[in-house]
Amino acid sequence: MTLVLVAALLQGCGGKEERDEGPNAEEAYAAANRALTAKNYPEAIRLYRDLTIRFPFGRHAEQAMLDMAYAEFKGGRPEAATATLDRFLRTYPTHPNVDYAWYMKGLVNYEQTMNFLETLMPGRVSDRDQQSAHQSFRDFQELIRRHPDSRYIADARQRMVFLRNIMAEYEIEVGSYYARRGAHVAALNRARYVLENYPGAPATIEALELMASSYDRLKMPELAQDTRRVLDLNYADLIDDDKRGGLLKRLWPFD
To answer: How far apart are CA 67 and CA 54, in angstroms?
Structure first.
């Protein structure tokens, strides 16, 4: 009888140790935050993921998912960050910080478009960069539509202007690439696309110039003359490259 009682007590102690599996949710979140603050992104991601698995419900799990997305973004894992943000938006559509999730989605894709400035040369422009630009623009649009009072709106709007300008510039680069290879109809179509889809973008001037040049090459002098007339009437003071300013200043017209 005594042996049975001792064995039962030992089992009870063992069971208690097995149930004590580590820090509680608050402690786990604090540890993950310390890793994030220290910019140890792989460790932060691991700790946030562990927290969401061990404590799938409650405010710590909700915030941990957002913080994990940020760590993935800063740690150079944009696809993982986007997937985490999508999961957050599906799981917590009414969360107080849901506007931040939309903003972060736009920001992740926005950062990928910055590569465009490094590859802004004919034949080297990346379609992937453009896909990211379009997706970022849509994410920021969704933020504005769903949360018009969000504190991230002003920044999102400025980034959208930049993205629009980048996308227009991309079309001009591709059009110029076509023109240099004698594909003047294709170049003309790219110029038209800019005028129709990105009115007011700095690339409008280049689009009109490309259009006039393409008409010349296609032996359509009247259309070329009409295009140059539009260019002179609307942008006479900006036709000179020196007056337009540098590329980055044109793309980001903010102080």
So the answer is: 16
